[in-house]
Specification:
Strand content of chain B: 15-25%
CATH topology of chain C: Pyruvate-ferredoxin Oxidoreductase, domain 3
CATH architecture of chain C: 3-Layer(aba) Sandwich
Strand content of chain C: 15-25%
Structural class of chain B: alpha/beta
Largest sheet of chain C: 6 strands, mixed
CATH class of chain B: Alpha Beta
Oligomer: heterotrimer
Number of helices of chain C: 6
Shape of chain C: globular
Number of strands of chain B: 10
Shape of chain B: globular
CATH superfamily of chain C: Pyruvate-ferredoxin oxidoreductase, PFOR, domain III
Strand order of the largest sheet of chain B: 2-1-3-4-8-7-10-9
Number of strands of chain C: 6
Chains: A alpha/beta (about 375), B alpha/beta (about 280), C alpha/beta (about 180)
Structural class of chain C: alpha/beta
Radius of gyration of chain B: 19 Å
Number of domains of chain C: 1
Order of helices and strands of chain B: HHEHEHEHHEEEHEHEHEHEH
Radius of gyration of chain C: 15 Å
CATH class of chain C: Alpha Beta
CATH topology of chain B: Rossmann fold
Largest interface: A-B, 45 and 39 residues
Strand order of the largest sheet of chain C: 2-3-1-4-5-6
Helix content of chain B: 25-40%
Chain lengths: ~375, ~280, ~180
C-alpha cells in the first residue's frame, strides 16, 4: 500500500493507468483538465499515448479509433464537452469499442458556471446520445472511490465491450483526500478471437453476448461500422431480424451482467423509516445528515447509488416496500427523483431535496428536509 | 507500370460478394476506389496492416467493398478516428477516403488540424461537388452559380480549393487527380501513401445523377469530358502559366519532409523515460 | 461523535490559498496520520475574485468533506473575516491579516491580527508567501497542525531553490503567531 494525498481527478488517473489505460485523447475543460494534464505527464513514460485533439468530437473519435487498434483508451471532460462527445459515445456503443469517458460535472446548462459543481448530467449520461442504447454510468463519492471506480470502469468496458461513463463532479474531482493505493488492481482485457480469421464473426455475441474483438492490423480484416450491421459487420440491408438482433444483444450483454455492473451501498436500511437516496458528492452530505438525524432519534438510513445506470430499480422497489419514505438528495432540479418514484411505484412516499445554484448541497439542508418529513408524519 | 487488371484486383482485394457496388452508373467513386487499391498493390503493402477509415455518405461505402480492416464511423470524423488508430499503432497504414461534404464541411476542422499535425495518414478526398447520398445538396466544393437540390436558384457561395487549404494548413504531401486520368491518379495516391506524413489527394470525381443532371451535364460522358477540359497538368501549368485560365492543376502540388507526429512522439517517449540518447 | 476540525483559508485568487490548503492537508494527512479532506473553491479567473480552501481534519473517516461551521479561519480580506467569522464555532481561532481593518467581529472568537502579507513582503521579499506565513501562524495559535509537519509537507512539495524561502515563511509565521498569542 502507498499512502498518498490525491485529488479525485488525480486518483482517476492512477486508477486508469494501473488498470492498463495507455491512450488518452482530450480537450481542455474545467474542472476536468487535471486529468488530461496528469495523463500528458504520466503516459509517455509508460509507453502510452497522449494527444490533445481539436475538440471533444475529435477526442472521442480518436479514443474509439485507438480502442479498435488495441489500446485501452480514455477521455475526460465536463458538461459542454460531454455534449460534444455524445455523438461518438454512440459510435463506441455501436462499434462495441471499449473505452472510458470521465465527466467531471459542472453547473449548466450550456457554458453554465465552469468552476461550480452540479449533478445535472445524470440523464445526459443515460440518454445523451441518440437512439436506443444501453449505458453504464458509475459515480464516485470520494477520492478513494474515484480510483476504484475508474479501475472498475476500465474493466467493465473491456469485459463488456462498451463505453463506460464515470460521472464525477466538480466537488469530487477537486477534493483531496488521503488514499491507500493497493500495489496492484484486477485487470480485465477485452475478449480477443481464438478462431482463425476465416471463421471470425466480429459481431457474433457468443453465450454471454460479448463478441471477441480483434485488434486492427492482426489479420482478421473486419469492419467496425456504425451502420446497423449483421454478425459479419456488413450493413444489414433489408434484414430486419439482424437489425433487431443487434439492438437486443447490445442491451442484453449489459442487462445480463447486472450483478457485475450495478453497485449500491446501504447504511441503516434495516431499521429505517426514511431512507435518503443520494449519489456522488451529495452522498457525503447525506451520510452526515443521516448520522445527525439518527442522533436526534430519527430512523433514517442512506441508500447510495454507486451505479446510476443501469438503474437499481429492483433494490429501490424492495427498500420502498419496507419503509415509509424515500428522500432523494441531488444537485439538480430533481432528475433521479423521478426514476426513484417510478421504481418505488407508490410503495413509499418519495420526497426530494434539490440544490441547483452551483453550491454544495449541505448536510443541514438534508437534515431540515428530514425534519420536515418527520413533522408531516406526526 | 501496367495497372493490375480488374479481375485480379477484385480477386485479391475485394470482399467476396461485395460487387456490384451501390453507386450509380457513371459515379466516379468506383474508379477512385480502384485507383486506391491499385496504389496499395503497387506499393506491395501487407494487406493485414492496411486500415481503411471512412466517414458517411457515398464515399462511406468504400470499406464495405474491400478486404482490409475497415472503419466506418460518424459523419466528418474519419480523420479524427484515423488519428486514434494510427497513433495507437503506428505500424498500420491508415488511408481515409472521404467525400467533400465529409471532409470539407462537417469534418473541416479535423482536416486542417490533421494537416497541421502531420501524422502519417493518407486522406483521399473524393470530390464530387455535392452530397450524393442525401440527394444532391450543395457542399463546400460546389462551384458558384451551379444548381443543387438546396441551391435551386443557383449557388451563391464560393468553393474551397482543398489543395490550397491543405498546403496552407501544413500538409506535407498534396496532390490533385481526376478519375478521368486514371494511371496518373494511381501514381498520385501511391506516392501519397508512401509519403511519411499527412498526405492529401483530392480526386475530382463526377456525380452525374445528383450534380451533373442539374448542371447541363446529362450523361457521365459529359462529366468525364468536363474533367478533361477543366484540368491541366502541373507540367503544362509550369510551362504555360498564362494558359491555366482557371483550370484546376493536376499532379503533385506539394511534397516536403516534415516532422511526422508518431515519430516525434516516439522521441518524446524516450525523453520521458529519461533516455538521453533519444 | 468523531473529532472533526474545520479550517478555512479565505482571500483572493492568486494568493496561493489552494496551495496553502494542499500543504495543510499533506501535513496533517501524511505526517500526523489523521484523516483529511481538502476542497478549493474559486472562480474562473486565476488572478481576480474570491478564493478559498477548506480543510477538514478528523480522527476517523470524514463524511462531509467541506466546512459547515469552521473552527479555524485565516482571512486575508475584511470581507472574508466578516463572512467566515460570523459562521465560526464559538471559541474558534480567527487569524486576520492586520492590514485589513475589521470591526464587528464576533466576541466569542479568539481573534489574532497578524501582518501576514507585510511579513511576507518585508521579511521575505515575496508577498505571495503570505499563505505559508499564515500556516505557520496557525501552527502557533492552534492545535490543528505542528510546525514540523508543515515543514515536511513544504519540503516534499516545493522544489529546489524555493524550498528554503518557503520554510522560512512558515517559521516567520510561527514566530508571529507566538508573539500574537502573548499580546
Amino acid at each position: 500500500m502507498t499512502t498518498m494525498v490525491l485529488s479525485g481527478n488525480e486518483a482517476c488517473v492512477e486508477g486508469a493507468l494501473r488498470s492498463g489505460v495507455r491512450f488518452f485523447a482530450g480537450y481542455p475543460i474545467t474542472p476536468s483538465s487535471e486529468i488530461a494534464e496528469e495523463m500528458a505527464r504520466r503516459l509517455p513514460a509508460l509507453g502510452g499515448k497522449f494527444i490533445q485533439m481539436e475538440d471533444e468530437l475529435a477526442s472521442m473519435a480518436a479514443v474509439v479509433g485507438a480502442s479498435l487498434a488495441g489500446l485501452k483508451a480514455m477521455t475526460a471532460t465536463s458538461g459542454p464537452g460531454f455534449s460534444l462527445m455524445q455523438e461518438n459515445i454512440g459510435m463506441a456503443v455501436m462499434l462495441e469499442a471499449p473505452c472510458v469517458v470521465v465527466n467531471v460535472q459542472r453547473a449548466g446548462p450550456s457554458t453554465g458556471w465552469a468552476t461550480w459543481p452540479a449533478q445535472g448530467d445524470v440523464m445526459a449520461a443515460r440518454w445523451g446520445t441518440h437512439g436506443d442504447h444501453p449505458a453504464i454510468v458509475l459515480t464516485p463519492w470520494s477520492v478513494k472511490e474515484s480510483f476504484e471506480l475508474t479501475v472498475r470502469a476500465v474493466n467493465l468496458a473491456e469485459r463488456l465491450r462498451t463505453p463506460v461513463i464515470l460521472l464525477s463532479d466538480a466537488i469530487i474531482g477537486r477534493l483531496r483526500e488521503k488514499v491507500d493505493l493497493p500495489p496492484s488492481v484486477p485487470v480485465v482485457d477485452r475478449p480477443r478471437p481464438a478462431m482463425a480469421p476465416d471463421h471470425y464473426r466480429p459481431y457474433a455475441g457468443g453465450p454471454d453476448g460479448v463478441p471477441p474483438m480483434a485488434d486492427f492490423g492482426t489479420g482478421y480484416r473486419w469492419y467496425a461500422t456504425t451502420t446497423t450491421h449483421n454478425e459479419r459487420g456488413y450493413p444489414v440491408g433489408v434484414d430486419a431480424a439482424a437489425a433487431e438482433g443487434l439492438l437486443k444483444r447490445l442491451h442484453s450483454k449489459i442487462h445480463d451482467h447486472q450483478d457485475e455492473v450495478v453497485l449500491t451501498e446501504g447504511r441503516w436500511l434495516e431499521d429505517s423509516e426514511v431512507v435518503v437516496v443520494a449519489y456522488g458528492s451529495v452522498a457525503r452530505s447525506a451520510l452526515a445528515a443521516v448520522k445527525q438525524a439518527r442522533s436526534r432519534g430519527l430512523k433514517a438510513g442512506l441508500l447510495r447509488l454507486v451505479t446510476l445506470w443501469p438503474f437499481p430499480s429492483q433494490l429501490i422497489s424492495q427498500v420502498a416496500q419496507r419503509i415509509r419514505g424515500l428522500l432523494v438528495a441531488e444537485m439538480n432540479m430533481g432528475q433521479m427523483v423521478e426514476k426513484v418514484r417510478e421504481a418505488s411505484c407508490g410503495a413509499s412516499e418519495v420526497w426530494s431535496v434539490a440544490r441547483f445554484n452551483g453550491q454544495y448541497l449541505m448536510p443541514e439542508q438534508i437534515l431540515d428536509k428530514l425534519e420536515e418529513v418527520r413533522r408531516a408524519w406526526r | 507500370m501496367a495497372l493490375m487488371r480488374n479481375r485480379d484486383m477484385v480477386e485479391r482485394y475485394f470482399r467476396r460478394g461485395a460487387l456490384p457496388t451501390t453507386w450509380c452508373p457513371g459515379c466516379g467513386l468506383g474508379t477512385a476506389t480502384g485507383a486506391m487499391v491499385r496504389a496499395i498493390d503497387q506499393l506491395g503493402l501487407d494487406a493485414d496492416k492496411v486500415v481503411i477509415v471512412t466517414g458517411i455518405g457515398c464515399s462511406g461505402q468504400v470499406y464495405t467493398l474491400l478486404n482490409f480492416d475497415g472503419f466506418h464511423g460518424t459523419h466528418g470524423r474519419a480523420l479524427a478516428a484515423a488519428t486514434g488508430i494510427k497513433f495507437a499503432n503506428p505500424e498500420l497504414t491508415v488511408i481515409a477516403p472521404m467525400g467533400d461534404g465529409d471532409c470539407a464541411a462537417i469534418g473541416g476542422n479535423h482536416f486542417i488540424q490533421a494537416a497541421r499535425r502531420n501524422m502519417d495518414i493518407t486522406a483521399i478526398i473524393m470530390a464530387n461537388q455535392a452530397y450524393g447520398m442525401t440527394g444532391g445538396q450543395y457542399s463546400p466544393l460546389t462551384p458558384m452559380g451551379s444548381f443543387t437540390s438546396t441551391s435551386p436558384y443557383g449557388h451563391i457561395e464560393p468553393p474551397f480549393d482543398m489543395c490550397a487549404l491543405a498546403i496552407a494548413a501544413g500538409a506535407t504531401y498534396v496532390a490533385r487527380g481526376t478519375v478521368y486520368h486514371t494511371q496518373e491518379l494511381v501514381r498520385l495516391i501511391a506516392r501519397g501513401i508512401a509519403h511519411r506524413g499527412f498526405s492529401v489527394i483530392e480526386v475530382l470525381a463526377p456525380c452525374p445523377v445528383q450534380f451533373g443532371r442539374r448542371n447541363a451535364m446529362a450523361t457521365p460522358v459529359d462529366m468525364f469530358r468536363q474533367l478533361q477540359r477543366a484540368t491541366v497538368s502541373v507540367r503544362e501549368a509550369e510551362l504555360h502559366p498564362e494558359a491555366i485560365g482557371g483550370r484546376a492543376v493536376r499532379g503533385v502540388l506539394r511534397e516536403v519532409e516534415g516532422p511526422e507526429f508518431t515519430a516525434e512522439y516516439e522521441a518524446l517517449i524516450r525523453r520521458a523515460k529519461g533516455d538521453t540518447h533519444g | 461523535m468523531a473529532k472533526r476540525t474545520e479550517v478555512v483559508l479565505a482571500g483572493l485568487a492568486g494568493q496561493g490559498l489552494v496551495f496553502a490548503g494542499t500543504i495543510l492537508a499533506d501535513a496533517v494527512g501524511l505526517y500526523e496520520d489523521k484523516f483529511i479532506s481538502q476542497l478549493g473553491f474559486f472562480s474562473i479567473s486565476a488572478r481576480t475574485g474570491p478564493s478559498r480552501s477548506e480543510v477538514v481534519i478528523g480522527d476517523e473517516e470524514i463524511d462531509f468533506p467541506a466546512a459547515t461551521q469552521p473552527d479555524i479561519v485565516v482571512a486575508f480580506t475584511r470581507a472574508d473575516a466578516q463572512l467566515y467569522g460570523a459562521r465560526m464555532r464559538p471559541g474558534g481561532v480567527l487569524i486576520v491579516d492586520s492590514d485589513q481593518e475589521c470591526s464587528c467581529l464576533p466576541e466569542s472568537l479568539l481573534i489574532y491580527r497578524i501582518p501576514l502579507v507585510s511579513i511576507a513582503r518585508r521579511e521575505l521579499g515575496e508577498p505571495l508567501l503570505a499563505n505559508l506565513v499564515a500556516l505557520g501562524a496557525m501552527a502557533a495559535l492552534s492545535e490543528v497542525v505542528a510546525l514540523e509537519s508543515l515543514e515536511q509537507a513544504v519540503a516534499s512539495r516545493v522544489p529546489g531553490a524555493r524550498t528554503e524561502t518557503s520554510l522560512e515563511a512558515l517559521r516567520k509565521g510561527y514566530s508571529a503567531g507566538l508573539l500574537a498569542k502573548k499580546t
